[in-house]
Each structure stands twice: as structure tokens, then as C-alpha cells.
Design brief:
The protein has 1055 residues and is mostly beta strands. Among the domains are: 116 residues, Spermadhesin, CUB domain (Jelly Rolls), CATH 2.60.120; 112 residues, Jelly Rolls (Sandwich); 102 residues, Spermadhesin, CUB domain (Jelly Rolls, Sandwich); 125 residues, Spermadhesin, CUB domain (Jelly Rolls). Helix content is 9%, strand content 34%. The protein has a 5-stranded mixed beta sheet with strand order 35-37-42-39-40, with no helix packed on it. A 5-stranded mixed beta sheet has the order 44-46-51-48-49, with no helix packed on it. The relative contact order is 0.03. Keywords: Cell membrane, Coiled coil, Disulfide bond, EGF-like domain, Glycoprotein, Membrane, Repeat, Signal. InterPro entries: CUB_dom (IPR000859), EGF (IPR000742), EGF-like_Ca-bd_dom (IPR001881), EGF-type_Asp/Asn_hydroxyl_site (IPR000152), EGF_Ca-bd_CS (IPR018097), Growth_fac_rcpt_cys_sf (IPR009030), NOTCH1_EGF-like (IPR049883), Sperma_CUB_dom_sf (IPR035914). One of its GO terms (molecular function) is calcium ion binding.
Length: 1055
């Protein structure tokens, strides 16, 4: 029997002894087996023995090294032989030496454990050090709390927003600085708060900005005016003639439009919105103070600006644009400044907030909470001591518990518990009283109240803000706030309340939004009525965009128009813009009862922008209008085959005012356009900014000609096959316009073409004209790429070559590179990952370039699944090939490869080493590649990549043979716990995988590669960032490299 068997037998024997003990034996005579502190103790009864009975060849061993039968049963006369009872032998000297050595070692063990410096004494010292460490920990916690409070005070001073009081006047911009603010003033004001007017007359005296030609300068608040001497005109008295056609519009009228008249000055000015004249000269140089007319829409302070106004920021605790202010939830950010350790509830209110009380065991105002000191009154006699949690006292010193209460320290906090039969907080001499908790079992005290059993009932000790009997909230009709949409509640007597609604809302509970207007009306025909059934509301701003097909324009008819009438339409008005924004050409701003433009408006584009505004007084019926979509009366896109004619609207009569017409003429690539003017009669002026026709090359974007006169220009032979023609007329003056005959001409030989060979050369033609523009298109098989290499490049700064990648399906063009004559250095080799490449060239006389292109054996796959073949599969030719297959799938996917067929062989002597014919599969993370495959070394039939990008490298030679390979790939979703990937397109978001609680998991290592086209930069925008904090970022961190992370000697840009 082995030793384990002996021990099992022994345990079984002992167990039987325990079970079969007679019941009549007294407890003091009963043997016991005791387990204490990991020790097994055998204890006999009084005056009884402990015997071990072994039979057969059984032995009683200790640690398998010593046999007790050999050490204890033997005596000096002899020992037991291998069979019990057979023969005796005398102790040998060697055995006696061993026994003596064992005795010495036993004594040594006793001294090391129980001696003066033994383990027992050291354990006692360790216990004392633990108590000291706990006391030091409490001390350090107190010091840390004090440091946090000081840092918080400093942070509040740093984050103090002095600009909330709007200290900057007259349109000044306010900037918060440490313990104050700084104002950036407009050029017409100065001073710490921009409240001092700048004297421009003194500032600009003797300069070009001041009054000229001995004119008198008159300083005004925020501006100045010049009174000219006879014979001089304009805001600076620099114009010799008071003629709108022969003088500068800006100098004559400033912020207005010049119109000739028969009065003293010979002209008058129609002022822009927000400007007026000073009554002395016609120029519009005086700002209209919109804040002084009493019709401002601001709910805050109105701030006048040159030509406009703005609203001051909303008051502290509110947010908005000044027209509408709504409550700001201060508690949503950083808990409103209330304590985070311990967490104190932040209570938001309209325009303000406050912090709840500190929890039990803490003192403070809710923003700052500190541990209660050891001398705090914890008598348990008042409401302030409700609860059983003490302060920083301990159970060993400064014990705050009732003498009969049990004291426990939990998380460095004393918790007092009354003994059975007594109730109370357990704190102080009155903390425990005789009674039971039967009446408090259902927890009748709400909102943090403490229940005290009074025998026949209970009494609730309620916190501040709640009343007995059950600690319910003090009756307040505003709790919870019944007002909707950030309305402010004002409590009245009893259960009554009143809501103060934010601008834009009305109703008893601010439930109705009266500003129900605006939107996009994208229908070819329709009707707009505003308002419906009643006069429009005050302080309303609405915007509509009416949109139709791009090939049509809008014909609008007004059935009703009734707004408050005023000079210059200052108060209520409807503004209409010929486009989709308020920045487009303005058709007019209308008010009163006269229908806009006599009741009919025709747009020049497929959009109209309508902007309605009302002030805080005098409302009317509004307006009603209908619209239809009609073909444009001017402009459009024309595909030119041979010839045609374009002309201004109304030709041969006068063209209309306020009209913009745009034509885009496009001829075949092997042609170019020629324009011949039959007539040209447009309002004449020097700047060509009022009525004009402008001609641009559509490919290069260069301006070719701009006319604003009556003449007969020479025919214009364009350098390209596309041209843009823009005609514009303003609201003053008109003429017969133009008629242009267009036709096509043969393009210069060598200018443009389509290239379909796998390699070739493109060069600019010899220029015999002033300028030229050419388009070259390179088409190679699907999924292949194109490499461009400039051999020659000699151009002027305005001569350029642009290279586009073209999507074969959508024909969408993506700019890959642009090089002009001012490019410094040698042009790089460019690889375009498109099989369709467009090269555009625009140059003047002397411009030259020559480039070589080739299509390498390089393929790019971006679809979810596809097949990959070796060249000429299944009949691989014996030729030298170096091929690359790039697979890029969507982020958060991995790539599954399935090898359908693989047969690559090489007849060289080194065929086993795959030296000349092989296939290598590697990831795109810069990691070590997988082993090359050839001959008998074939890849697994199917395997899955780690990331969403793979590269297959294939080489063949003159000694290659076999069918080649055929591989199918498919994108499959990445596992929930996986991360990393390759990003080759802009606009993606990189996220860490998270668990159900939204937290990232432990022990993650992720690699992301972001690849941009050659000579492009990568811009990273961190939307959120929250990792475990550490002083040296050695635990959780993100590293950003300007290359592959495992490149040689690579250093991160940051961690």
C-alpha cells in the first residue's frame, strides 16, 4: 500500500471512531479532532490514549521522508525488520547521529518561531505598523481634500466669465481673461469698454482717409462726414463730377446706389438697409441706430452696429442668440460645480441652479464637502445627527457610538449599530433607546428622513425642505416645473402658478409655439399663405426656400400682400432673394399693401429665398402667393454639335433689370468653340460691375473677356471645348444686350485624346496661339492603376496641369494632383488608384510638358467580395511579372480568403526556396509577411485576416509553369472584441469596441493605419477622448506615428 492509501485508511478509521462514540460518555472523556488556524489537532479524552494500529506492510510516514516506525518503535536494543515481529537488531551509531541531528533541528525551529526575534514577534510588529499606516492614510486623505479645495477655488477664478455681464459697448467683442475681461473695439470706438468715440477728423487729418481738397470735416458718433467745397463731390470730396456714370459709386454714395437726378448735386443716393444720409450731402454715411427706434427684436440688450445691429448675449444661466434665450442646464457639465467626491446632487432651475446638502458625515455648502471633524457634536439628539454614520473618528479613539452600540469602521468611516432591543442612530449617549423597529420596517419616512419607533407608532426626522409626518415635500405648485419649453414657473398662493414663457412660445404652460413658419418647399407648383386665418404674430422671423427642377425657373404670382407699412420697410417686411440664401442677389424688400414687383416675380435660377420678419407692434394679414415652374428665359446648358445662337432676354429689345443669365456651352473633346458677336450693347461704365457679359474658359476657370460697352468685338476663338458665359444686369438702366453666334472648330493636333494602351507618352502640342487648354484621358482595364512620370515640365506660373481620378460608373472626378509653373523641384512619380485618369492642361505660349504613363501589374479591390486571378489564368505564361493585388474593405470588417485553385511551379534548381515564382500574402499594417507559397508549399484553403486590408504579391519568371491561382475573398464583420483596421477614405470615425456599459475592455491592443494619397496631409479631429489617467501614460494610452508603428527607429508624434 502506498502512503496515500495509508493516510486514507487512517482518516477512515478516525471518522468511524467519531460516529460510533457511545452517547453516555461524558463530554470531558470524548476524544476530539480540532481544526484551528489551519492546524489539525488530535485530543484524547481524560486519561485516555491515542493509538495508531497498522496491519500488514503499513507504515506511518512524515513528508514521505521519515518512517515513524523506524524512528519511534525501535529502541536501543533493536528495530523492527521489514516484517513486523520478525527479528531485532541493535541501533547503529549512524542512526543515533541522525536522531540527535533531528532533535537539534527541532530546537532550532522552536527558537526561530517563538524566540525573542522569532516569527511570532515579527508578526506582532507587522500588526502595529498596519495600524500606523491606517492613521497616516487618514491624515493624507485630509490633506488631499484640502488641496482639492484650493485647486477648485483657483479653477473657479480661472473660469470666471466676466463677459456674461456684456461690458463691451458699441459692438465691441468681449474676451475673458484671468480675473477680468478685455474688449476688442470697432475702429470707430476706443476705451476699456469701447464707450469712447474716435475723432476721425483728427485721426485721419492729412491722410488719404480724411477729407480732401480743403473740405470741412465734421466728426459724428461712430463716424464722420466731409462738407465739400464747390466743384467737388463724394464722401471724401475727391470726385470732380457729380455724375453716377463717370464717378465712383462708392465715393459718391458710400453705402448706397448712385442715381442721376436734376437737383443741386446732380445725383441722389438710394441707401442700403441700415444706412441714411446726414441731410447735408447725398452720401449714405450715417448709420441707422436700430436700437433707438423701439422696434428691436432682441429679448436682451440691443447693440447697434454699422449698418446693422446685434443682440447682447443672454444673461447668466441662459443660452441663445439674444432674440430667443432659453434656460442653460448648468448641471449637465461637471455637475454644475457641485461636489463630485462625495457626489452632491445638482438642482437646475430657470436661469440658475443650486447644490443640494452634503451627505451625512460631511460638512459644507454642497459645492465643497469635508469630512466632519472628531469634535463634531454627534449626540444623536437632533435632526442633524440622523443616520448612523459618524465622522473621521475611529472605534479605538474618539469613539462616538453609544456605550452599548457596536462600532465598525467601513471605508474609514465609523458606523454605529444599536444592540437588539434598542433603536436609534447609535451615535452619542442618546443614540440608542429601548424599543423596536416594527413600526419602521416599511420605511414610511421618505426623501431621506430617519424613522424613530415610538412604541405605538413612529416619528420621522425630516431633512430641510420636507415636512412631517412622512417627510413629504413642502407644497409648491412649481415643483416639478409645469412650464414647458424652458418656461419659468412662478408659484402663487395655494396650488396656483404662472408661467413666464421664453420668446417664441405661448399658452398657460408655454406649450404652443407661435413661430410655426418657414421650410423648404420643393414642389414644381404650389401655394404659400402666411399666416392662416388671423394676423401674423409679433417678433416672428421666417424663411422659406422654394425649389424646383434645375432645368426650370420659378414664376411667382401674389394674390394678397398686406404688411405693416413704413419708410424703407424698417419694421415688418418680406425680402425675396434670387437664389437659395439671403446672400444671393436681392430682388427687393417689400412692405405695405403694394404687391412685390406688381405681383409677379420670375427667378433666374431654380431657387427663391423668402425672408419674413415682424417687429413687436402692429400686425397685418400677411401674404398669399402661388408659384409655377417654367423654362428659363435665359441661360442653360447646351451641348454643341455644330453651331447656334444665344442672346440676352428680350432681344432684340432691351434686357430686363436685375437679371442673371448663365450659359454653359460644351462641344466634343476633339473640337473647340468659336464665339462671334452679331451685336453688343450693354450699359457702359469703367468698373464693369453693374451690367456686363463675362466669358470664362470652363476647363481652366480663367477669365477670357468681360464686356460692358457698345462695340463690335473680333471673333473669339476659345482654347477649349467648354465655355461659361454670364450676363448680369442691375436695377438701373438697360440696353439691347447682345447676340452671340457660336460654332465649333477643329482642335489643334496633339491637344487632347483618349489613350487605352498599357503604357504611352503624353505631351503638350506646339503652341501657335496665345493660350490653349487640352484634355487627355487614360483608360486601362478595370481595377488596374496608372503611374505617371513627368519627363519635362516648363511652364509659366499661370500654366497648370491637373490630374483627376475618374469613377468609371458615376464619372465623378477626384482631383489627385495639380502642378503649375511655379512648382519648385523635380515632379514626383504619381500612382493613381483609378483605371480611368483625366489629365487637363492649360497653358500659354511657351508652355511645355511631357509625361510617360504605364499600367503596372497592380490591382485594387474595394468591393465586398470578388475573385482574384493570376495573369492569364489558367494558362500562366512564362514571363517576368511583379504583380500587386490590394484588397480594401470597409472598416470594422475582416477579409476571408478562399483559395479555389493554386498551381505555381518553377523549373529552377532553387524551386524549393520559392526564389523566382511565388505568392506572398501580407497585411497592410507593416507587419512581417506570411511565408511565400509555391510548388508543394500551398496556402491553406481558407483563412481570415486580422484587419480590413490585405496585399497579395505575385512574382513569375521565364521558368514559371502551372495554371496560376484563383482566390475568392469576402468581407465579414469584425468580432465584437476585435479592433484596428486600415482607412483609405476620408470622413470615417475610429472607435474602440465597448461593452454593454459603454466602456472599452481590458488588455486590448489595437492598430489603425490611415492612408492618404501621395502628397496629401492627414487631419485628425478628436471628437472624444477618455482613457485611464496616469502620470507617464504607461497603462492605457494612444500613440500616433507619422509612419508605421513598427518601422525602424520610429518615434510617436505623441502619446
Amino acid at each position: 500500500m502506498n502512503n496515500n492509501g495509508r493516510l486514507k485508511g487512517l482518516a477512515g478509521t478516525v471518522l468511524l471512531i467519531i460516529i460510533n462514540l457511545p452517547g453516555g460518555i461524558a463530554l470531558v472523556n470524548s476524544p476530539k479532532i480540532i481544526i484551528k488556524d489551519g492546524n489539525l489537532i488530535f485530543e484524547s479524552g481524560l486519561d485516555r490514549n491515542i493509538s495508531f494500529r497498522l496491519s500488514g506492510r503499513s507504515r506511518l510516514n512524515i513528508n514521505d521522508d521519515y518512517d515513524l516506525l523506524d524512528l519511534l518503535i525501535q529502541n536501543k536494543k533493536g528495530r523492527t525488520s521489514t516484517t513486523l515481529g520478525e527479528g531485532n537488531e541493535e541501533w547503529t551509531e549512524e542512526e543515533e547521529a541522525v536522531l540527535k541531528q533531528l532533535t537539534l533541528e527541532m530546537d532550532s525551529v522552536k527558537r526561530r518561531v517563538f524566540g525573542p526575534n522569532g516569527l511570532q514577534y515579527r508578526f506582532f510588529l507587522l500588526q502595529n505598523r498596519t495600524r500606523v499606516a491606517q492613521q497616516l492614510l487618514r491624515l493624507y486623505n485630509n490633506r488631499l481634500q484640502q488641496a482639492e479645495n484650493r485647486v477648485k477655488i483657483l479653477q473657479e477664478r480661472l473660469e470666471k466669465k466676466a463677459c456674461l455681464s456684456n461690458p463691451c459697448e458699441n459692438g465691441g467683442s468681449c474676451f475673458n481673461i484671468f480675473d477680468g475681461f478685455m474688449c476688442k473695439c470697432p475702429k470707430s470706438f476706443e476705451g476699456p469698454t469701447c464707450n469712447q468715440d474716435v475723432n476721425e477728423c483728427a485721426l485721419y487729418a492729412g491722410t488719404d482717409l480724411g477729407c480732401q481738397n480743403e473740405a470741412q470735416c465734421v466728426n459724428q458718433f461712430g463716424s464722420y462726414s466731409c462738407i465739400c467745397r464747390p466743384g467737388w463731390y463724394g464722401i471724401h470730396c475727391t470726385q470732380r463730377k457729380g455724375d453716377c456714370m463717370q464717378s465712383s459709386n462708392w465715393e459718391l454714395c458710400g453705402h448706397g446706389i448712385c442715381v442721376n437726378s436734376n437737383d443741386t448735386f446732380g445725383y441722389k443716393c438710394i441707401c442700403d438697409q441700415g444706412w441714411r444720409t446726414n441731410g447735408l450731402i447725398p452720401a449714405c454715411t450715417v448709420d441707422v441706430d436700430e436700437c433707438a427706434v423701439g422696434h428691436t427684436a432682441c429679448s436682451t440688450k440691443c447693440i447697434n452696429l454699422p449698418g446693422s445691429f446685434t443682440c447682447a448675449p443672454c444673461a447668466a444661466g441662459l443660452t441663445g442668440n439674444g432674440i430667443n434665450c432659453r434656460d442653460l442646464n448648468e448641471c449637465a457639465e461637471n455637475n454644475g460645480g457641485c461636489s463630485l467626491n462625495p457626489k452632491v446632487h445638482c438642482i437646475n432651475s430657470y436661469g440658475s441652479y443650486h447644490c443640494d446638502e452634503c451627505p451625512l458625515g460631511w460638512l459644507g455648502d454642497g459645492r465643497t464637502c469635508t469630512r466632519a471633524s472628531s469634535n463634531t457634536d454627534f449626540t444623536g439628539s437632533g435632526p442633524s445627527t440622523s443616520g448612523a454614520i459618524g465622522g473621521v473618528a475611529s472605534c479605538t479613539s474618539n469613539n462616538i457610538c453609544h456605550p452599548l452600540a457596536a462600532c465598525n469602521e467601513i471605508s474609514n468611516t465609523v458606523v454605529c449599530s444599536c444592540p437588539p432591543g434598542m433603536i436609534g442612530s447609535g451615535i452619542g449617549v442618546n443614540g440608542c433607546v429601548h424599543g423596536s423597529n416594527k413600526n419602521c420596517l416599511n420605511q414610511p419616512c421618505k426623501n431621506g428622513g430617519t424613522c424613530l419607533d415610538s412604541g405605538n407608532g413612529y416619528v420621522c426626522l425630516c431633512p430641510l425642505g420636507f415636512v412631517q409626518p412622512n417627510c413629504t415635500a413642502i407644497s409648491n405648485a412649481c415643483v416639478p416645473n409645469p412650464c414647458l419649453n424652458a418656461g419659468r414657473c412662478i408659484a402663487k398662493v395655494g396650488e396656483h402658478y404662472q408661467c413666464q414663457c421664453t420668446p417664441g412660445y405661448t399658452g398657460k404652460r408655454c406649450e404652443n409655439r407661435f413661430n410655426r413658419c418657414g421650410g423648404v418647399l420643393a414642389d414644381p407648383v404650389g401655394r404659400l399663405t402666411y399666416p392662416t386665418g388671423s394676423p401674423y404674430e409679433h417678433n416672428v422671423q421666417c424663411a422659406w426656400i422654394i425649389r424646383t427642377s434645375e432645368t426650370l425657373v420659378l414664376n411667382v404670382t401674389f394674390n394678397l400682400f398686406e404688411l405693416e407699412d413704413s419708410t424703407d420697410c424698417r419694421y415688418d417686411w418680406l425680402q425675396i432673394n434670387d437664389g437659395r440664401t439671403a446672400a444671393d442677389q436681392i430682388i427687393g424688400r417689400f412692405c405695405g399693401s403694394h404687391k412685390p414687383n406688381g405681383g409677379n416675380i420670375i427667378s433666374s435660377t431654380n431657387n427663391l429665398y423668402l425672408w419674413f420678419k415682424s417687429d413687436n407692434s402692429t400686425a397685418a394679414q400677411g401674404f398669399d402667393m402661388e408659384w409655377q415652374s417654367i423654362p428659363p428665359q435665359c441661360g442653360g446648358v447646351f451641348t454643341v454639335t455644330t453651331h447656334g445662337t444665344i442672346s440676352t432676354p428680350g432681344s432684340p429689345g432691351n434686357y430686363p433689370k436685375n437679371r442673371d443669365c448663365r450659359w454653359h456651352l460644351k462641344a466634343p473633346n476633339n473640337k473647340r468653340l468659336k464665339l462671334t458677336f452679331f451685336s453688343l450693347n450693354i450699359e457702359k461704365h469703367d468698373s464693369c460691375n453693374y451690367d456686363y457679359v463675362e466669358i470664362k474658359d470652363a476647363i481652366s476657370g480663367h477669365n477670357l473677356e468681360k464686356y460692358c460697352n457698345s462695340s463690335h468685338p473680333q471673333p473669339l476663338l476659345l482654347p477649349t471645348n467648354e465655355v461659361n458665359i454670364h450676363f448680369h444686369s442691375d436695377n438701373i438702366g438697360s440696353d439691347t444686350g447682345f447676340q452671340i453666334y457660336y460654332s465649333t472648330e477643329e482642335r489643334i493636333p496633339g491637344c487632347g485624346g483618349v489613350y487605352t494602351l498599357s503604357e504611352g507618352q503624353i505631351q503638350a502640342p506646339v503652341l501657335i496661339e496665345d493660350s490653349i487648354a487640352c484634355e487627355y484621358e487614360i483608360k486601362v482595364p478595370t481595377r488596374e492603376s496608372v503611374i505617371l512620370n513627368f519627363e519635362k515640365f516648363q511652364m509659366a506660373p499661370d500654366d497648370c496641369v491637373k490630374i483627376y481620378g475618374v469613377n468609371s460608373e458615376t464619372r465623378e472626378q477626384s482631383l489627385q494632383a495639380k502642378y503649375c509653373g511655379d512648382y519648385e523641384g523635380r515632379l514626383p512619380v504619381i500612382e493613381i488608384n483609378f483605371n480611368d485618369v483625366l489629365v487637363t492642361f492649360y497653358g500659354r505660349s511657351g508652355a511645355e510638358f511631357k509625361l510617360n504613363y504605364r499600367s503596372p501589374c497592380s490591382f485594387t479591390f474595394n468591393s465586398e467580395e470578388d475573385f482574384i486571378y493570376s495573369p492569364n489564368y489558367p494558362n500562366m505564361t512564362k514571363e517576368i511579372n511583379f504583380c500587386t493585388y490590394k484588397i480594401n474593405t470597409e472598416p470594422n470588417t475582416v477579409i476571408s480568403l478562399y483559395v479555389t485553385d493554386f498551381d505555381l511551379k518553377d523549373s529552377t534548381l532553387d524551386d524549393k526556396g520559392c526564389a523566382y515564382t511565388f505568392l506572398v500574402i501580407e497585411d497592410s499594417m507593416g507587419k512581417s509577411p506570411w511565408e511565400p507559397y509555391c510548388n508543394e508549399k500551398t496556402p491553406a484553403r481558407d483563412f481570415v485576416s486580422k484587419y480590413n486590408s490585405l496585399e497579395l504579391l505575385f512574382r513569375s519568371s521565364l521558368t514559371s509553369s502551372g495554371r496560376g491561382f484563383k482566390i475568392k475573398y469576402k468581407a465579414i464583420p469584425m468580432g465584437k472584441g476585435n479592433c484596428g483596421g486600415v482607412y483609405t477614405k476620408p470622413g470615417y470615425t475610429i472607435r474602440l469596441p465597448t461593452d454593454e456599459e459603454g466602456l472599452y475592455m481590458h488588455d486590448m491592443e489595437c492598430y489603425w493605419i490611415i492612408k492618404a494619397p501621395l502628397y496629401k496631409y492627414i487631419f485628425l479631429n478628436w471628437k472624444s477622448f477618455k482613457l485611464e489617467e496616469s502620470s507617464d501614460c504607461n497603462y492605457d494610452y494612444v500613440e500616433v506615428f507619422d509612419n508605421y508603428a513598427n518601422a525602424k527607429n520610429s518615434q510617436p508624434l505623441g502619446r
